[in-house]
Amino acid sequence: MWILSKMNTPLKNARKEKGYTLSKVAQLVGSDTGNISRIENGKQVPSRILMQKLVGIFAERGITEIHLLYPERYADDSENI
Predict the structure, then answer these.
(1) End-to-end CA distance of the chain
(2) Where are the strands (E) in 1-81, listed by range?
């Protein structure tokens, strides 16, 4: 069983690589930090519009809709990056 909150999902990795905080991402997409955190940890699936905005921000880091819909398939078990 995957425990995503202890794993790094592609979205979390991409956010950290860009040096963005949860607050910065939330501001860029017009959401709140709680939603972004839950999406990063695989506890919430973003709406279609929010997903498009997140992919737009992190596309150069290889993030696609599939990474946001199925983060457990792409998570790594590194504790922190």
Answers:
(1) 22
(2) none
